[in-house]
Specification:
13 helices; binds cytidine-5'-monophosphate; 7 strands; sialyltransferase cstii, chain A; globular; seven-stranded mixed sheet; alpha/beta
Length: about 325
Amino acid sequence: NGALGEVWNEEMSSTMLGKRLRKVVQNYQAMNKYGVKYPGPAAHRPKLSGPELLCQIKEMVQITTLTPDMEPFSGLPWASQLPQHQITTDIGPFKTCAVVSSAGSLKNSGLGKEIDTHDAVIRFNAAPTTGFEKDVGSKTTVRLINSQVMASEDHHFLSSSLYSAGILVSWDPGPYSSDLREWFNKTDYPIFKQYQRYRRLHPQQPFYIIHPRMEWQLWQRIQDNMDETIQKNPPSSGLLGTVLMMSLCEVVHVYEFLPSRRKTELCHYYQRFSDAACTLGAYHPLLYEKNLVKRMNQGSDRDIYTYGRVTLPGFITFNC
Ligand code: C5P
C-alpha cells in the first residue's frame, strides 16, 4: 500500500537490545581476546557524513591478501600454494556487484533475478543457491568463508560441492597487532591446515586468504565512528565482503544486511533456526556495522524497506 515502515536506525545501541542479548553483547564488549589496544571513542568529535565515512574507509582500510613472499609463509614449503598476486590485482574491476547476506529475511524475497543481473555476486560461508534460486539467485563469483566453516566437521568443506563454485576468500580472526607470525602460531581455527588440504584437492580454484590487518583497520573505522565501546572482535563476514566488493566494483548493492519489511528472527534463509543475535550481533560488532552501512547508503529508505537493498559506491568512483 506504499506506506513506508521503519528501517534500520543508524543510532542503534546495545541499550536497545532485548535483555538477554544485551547481556551477551556487554560480555563480549568487556572481553579482549585479540589484544585490542585502542583509545576508544574520543569525546565530542564531529559525526562524519556518509561521504566522509566512505573516504575514511577507502583511505584507511587496505584490502590485502596473503602472497607467497610474506613472512613467515615465505619460508614454508606450501607458500607456493598461495596466489602470486593480490585479489584486487587478479579480479575485477566489475561494474555492478551484489553482496548477498545470508539473512532469514531473504526468504520469499523474490530477489534472485535482480541479484543475478549483477556482474559479480559475493556469498558467505555455507549459504547455498540450489533450491533457493528464486530468492537469492544462482550466480556465485566470490564466496567469503570464515575459518570455522573450513574446520568444522559438519560443513564438509573439503568435499562439499557448495564451495567449488567461484573464487574462494577465507579469513580467521588474527591478533590486533596483525603480526602474521603471531597469527600463524595462534589461529582461532586451523585455517592454514585446511587451506593446504583444499588446495591439494582443488588446485585450479582461486583461493585467497585475507590479511588480518584488514579486519582490524575496518574495526577501527567502526569504533572511531560510534559513541559506545563496541565488541573487541573482528567485523562480520558480511561487512568484510562488502568492503572487498567496494574495492572491486563501481556500484555495490548489499541485500538484506539492513533488514527489509521481511525482517525476521530467522537466522539464515537456508536453515530453520531463529536467533536475534544473527541480525543484531553477539560476537561480531554487527549492530555498529549496520549503523555505519546505513550512514554510507546512497539509496533510499524505500529500497531498504522493500528490497532490503543498500547502494554503496565503489572506491574508484570517488575522490577524497
Ligand atoms: O551467518 P553468516 O556469517 O554466514 O552470514 C553471512 C553474513 O550475513 C554475516 O556475516 C552478516 O554480516 C550477515 N547476516 C545478517 N543477518 C543475519 C544473518 C547474516 O546481517 N540474520
